[in-house]
């Protein structure tokens, strides 16, 4: 790549775009971005114009020669792109609110990437990402697809197994959030921390953690026993771990493990919150309204600090450091979602895993982690089975597979309740699930 870099961002009207732009500005010396194409759909046009205006002001303030293009024409954005980043939400936040509210009626967790919500977000999103892959094959076959759209693990799995795109990396801010959170707890600079990550997206464990190469795992596990330290993301309130459990687990849990190891308490807490301030999507809807009001201000030319109230904080660091390392063949270590290729012994080779990798110009090379410790292996395998069956359901529109996926998910209490939830959610999301309404096999 000798010409200036072209990046297309799908879902460019997202409130997270200023994060990304800040990252590009900070790393411009290493990543000479020439064209940034922010693309959205008709329904996102107004947001695209507002956030695009802010992106242009941020770049102008930084004095950089980056062209920002705002468009509803995905094909024009993709043409000859070097990197395609995806951060779209099919059905917008209204769909997320349904994913969160409907399962709660059945006493089941309502969350955007786990349980029924995760399943339905996958069912809505996978056909769209596969369509983007088809456009990429034709318009930018050498580009890297950097996916931030949730459920990021399932989306990476779908691209790897059902498209011809091989240059795909799934990205999440949870691992970088854990690194930064632990660095803060230990009062050391983030650059001195390394965690051996292994597992799946939102189901990742830190098998060990080092400061300057020395293991500090026991010290960190002791710190995690403090309820104030049990979550590293803004969207999950840490309810605190049982010290006996977290000590014996002997690896670092991620914030999303709260949903699996404290299911009852999390469902109760979310049910209560839904009654009081609303579900997370409803809270985020209000936050977004405030954010877009701020973005409109013609004098604003920085990422507003209010964006840090969102769960996706550090997204720019994760995304731009990844793109930069691919572009410069940096060979540093980063946790990403990629094809397992034997790195984690307990997971099929052709499945997506979230694992520490060496990032090269040819993409992430997973570091061999061996077998997962027995105390976490089963849960990770069960979620991988869920993700694979769910992905198949999304691609085929097979109703029975959707019921199977939810039934085998550990957050679902029974096959009958799983079926009832699937039925209600299929109906609620009908508009975004055409594959199920052309091809019902029940
Ligand atoms: C976390 C997750 C992201 C998720 C976000 C939600 O950080 O890693 O996958 O999208 O939180 O944040 P929000 O502010 O939208 O609830």
TrEMBL record:
Which molecular function terms from Gene Ontology are attached? 6-phospho-beta-glucosidase activity
Free-text cofactor note: Binds 1 NAD(+) per subunit.
Query: Which InterPro entries does the annotation name?
Result: GlycHydrolase_4_CS, Glyco_hydro_4, Glyco_hydro_4_C, Lactate_DH/Glyco_Ohase_4_C, NAD(P)-bd_dom_sf
What Gene3D superfamilies has UniProt attached to this entry? Lactate dehydrogenase/glycoside hydrolase, family 4, C-terminal, NAD(P)-binding Rossmann-like Domain
Positions of the Glycosyl hydrolase family 4 C-terminal domain: 197-411
Q: Which UniProt keywords apply?
A: Glycosidase, Hydrolase, Manganese, Metal-binding, NAD
The cofactors required by this protein are: NAD(+)
Coiled-coil segments on the chain, per record: none
Judging by the UniProt lineage, the source's domain of life is Bacteria
Pfam families recorded for this chain?
A: Glyco_hydro_4 (PF02056), Glyco_hydro_4C (PF11975)
Q: What is its EC number?
A: 3.2.1.86
First-level EC class: hydrolase
> Which family is it part of?
Belongs to the glycosyl hydrolase 4 family.
- Descriptive protein name: 6-phospho-beta-glucosidase
* Species this protein is from: Lysinibacillus zambalensis
């Amino acid at each position: 790549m000798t010409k200036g870099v072209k990046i297309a961002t799908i879902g460019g009207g997202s409130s997270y775009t200023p994060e990304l732009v800040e990252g590009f500005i900070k790393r411009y010396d290493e990543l000479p971005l020439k064209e940034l194409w922010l693309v959205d759909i008709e329904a996102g046009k107004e947001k695209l114009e507002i956030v695009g205006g802010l992106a242009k002001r941020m770049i102008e303030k930084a004095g950089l020669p980056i062209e920002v293009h705002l468009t509803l024409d995905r094909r024009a954005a993709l043409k000859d792109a070097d990197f395609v980043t995806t951060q779209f939400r099919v059905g917008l936040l209204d769909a997320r609110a349904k994913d969160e509210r409907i399962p709660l009626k059945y006493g089941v967790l309502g969350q955007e990437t786990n349980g029924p919500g995760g399943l339905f977000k996958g069912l809505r999103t996978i056909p769209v990402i596969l369509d983007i892959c088809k456009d990429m094959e034709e318009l930018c076959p050498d580009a890297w697809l950097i996916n931030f759209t949730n459920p990021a693990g399932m989306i990476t799995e779908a691209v790897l197994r059902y498209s011809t795109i091989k240059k795909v990396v799934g990205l999440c801010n949870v691992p970088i959030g854990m690194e930064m959170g632990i660095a803060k707890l230990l009062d050391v600079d983030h650059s001195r921390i390394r965690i051996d990550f292994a597992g799946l997206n939102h189901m990742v464990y830190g098998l060990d953690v080092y400061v300057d190469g020395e293991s500090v795992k026991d010290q960190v596990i002791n710190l995690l026993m403090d309820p104030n330290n049990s979550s590293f993301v803004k969207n999950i309130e840490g309810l605190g771990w049982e010290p006996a459990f977290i000590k014996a687990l002997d690896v670092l849990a991620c914030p999303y493990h709260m949903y699996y190891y404290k299911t009852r308490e999390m469902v109760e807490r979310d049910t209560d919150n839904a009654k009081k301030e609303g579900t997370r999507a409803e809270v985020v809807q209000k936050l977004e309204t405030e954010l877009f009001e701020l973005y409109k201000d013609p004098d604003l030319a920085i990422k507003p600090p209010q964006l840090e109230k969102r769960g996706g904080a550090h997204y720019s660091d994760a995304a731009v450091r990844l793109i930069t390392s691919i572009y410069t063949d940096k060979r540093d270590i980063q946790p990403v979602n990629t094809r397992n290729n034997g790195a984690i012994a307990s997971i099929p080779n052709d499945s997506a895993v979230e694992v520490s990798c060496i990032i090269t110009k040819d993409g992430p090379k997973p570091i061999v982690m061996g077998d997962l410790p027995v105390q976490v292996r089963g849960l990770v395998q069960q979620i991988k089975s869920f993700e694979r069956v769910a992905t198949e359901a999304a691609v085929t529109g097979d109703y029975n597979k959707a019921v199977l996926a939810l039934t085998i998910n550990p957050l679902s209490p029974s096959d009958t309740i799983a079926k009832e939830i699937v039925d209600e959610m299929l109906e609620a999301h009908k508009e975004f699930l055409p594959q199920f309404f052309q091809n019902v096999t029940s």
